[in-house]
């Protein structure tokens, strides 16, 4: 329907990073609108009336729909760009962040199955290298939710038995990924350290595309 890799490439020239996930969501939606004004867009689109689940962005016309889910997970970063101050906090809780990203994929698979000509795209943008690097310990509590470079995402995924209740609270249920998706990280932007910049300035993106055949 539209090439999100190209759209993100165009967006990066204007916005190498974002203040928050909501900022990322709005900026991406506006970039899509500028490049594809013939499509309609909705933010926080409800999946079902009266239910809490929603899509971050829905792009559609009379014949097609593209559902987009976003995650923006940051490590400490401070920068001033064009007199605009960016002070990003350390989100930590990467295990929960990975679970939530996989839950987005599960949600998009359901949406694609229920809507004939729909496709889905789940995007994770981060400057936290622990997302794209493989774990040092293969027995970590979120081993099945890992999204490092080269990992294949598929099947029923669960927490390790050693995961604490504090970690899994609100995220207890296993996730079922029907398709198979290979993790391939791409560079989004990199800001070199200087007097106006501190912290982790390399941002990378993971894009998972979902269609009816995979889902």
Word description of this protein:
- Helices cover 24% and strands 34% of the residues.
- By secondary structure, the chain is of the alpha+beta class.
- A 6-stranded mixed sheet has the order 1-2-3-6-11-9, sandwiched between helices. It has a 3-stranded antiparallel sheet with strand order 5-4-10, with no helix packed on it. Strands 7-8 form a two-stranded antiparallel sheet.
- The chain is globular.
- The model has no long low-confidence stretch (mean pLDDT 93).
Draw up the topology in text.
Blueprint: H1 4-14, H2 21-35, E1 40-46, E2 54-60, E3 65-73, E4 77-81, E5 84-88, H3 94-114, E6 118-126, E7 152-157, H4 165-168, E8 175-182, E9 185-190, E10 197-199, E11 202-210
Parallel strand pairs: 3-6
Antiparallel strand pairs: 1-2, 2-3, 4-5, 4-10, 6-11, 7-8, 9-11
Helix pairs in contact: 1-2
């Amino acid at each position: 329907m539209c090439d999100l890799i190209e759209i993100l490439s165009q967006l990066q020239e204007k916005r190498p990073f974002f203040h928050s996930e909501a900022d990322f969501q709005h900026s991406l939606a506006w970039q899509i609108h500028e490049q594809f004004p013939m499509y309609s867009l909705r933010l926080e689109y409800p999946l079902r009336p009266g239910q809490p689940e929603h899509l971050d962005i829905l792009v559609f016309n009379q014949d097609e729909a593209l559902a987009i889910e976003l995650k923006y997970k940051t490590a400490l970063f401070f920068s001033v760009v064009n007199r605009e101050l960016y002070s990003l906090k350390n989100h930590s809780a990467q295990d929960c962040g990975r679970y939530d990203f996989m839950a987005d994929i599960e949600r998009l698979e359901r949406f694609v199955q229920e809507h004939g000509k729909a496709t889905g795209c789940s995007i994770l943008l981060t400057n936290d290298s622990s997302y794209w690097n493989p774990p040092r310990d293969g027995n970590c509590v979120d081993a099945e939710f890992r999204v490092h470079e080269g990992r294949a995402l598929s099947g029923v995924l669960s927490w390790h038995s050693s995961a604490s209740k504090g970690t899994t609270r609100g995220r207890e249920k296993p996730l079922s990924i029907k398709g198979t998706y290979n993790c391939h990280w791409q560079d989004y932007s990199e800001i070199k350290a200087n007097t106006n910049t501190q912290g982790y300035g390399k941002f990378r993106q993971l894009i998972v595309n979902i269609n009816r055949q995979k889902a």
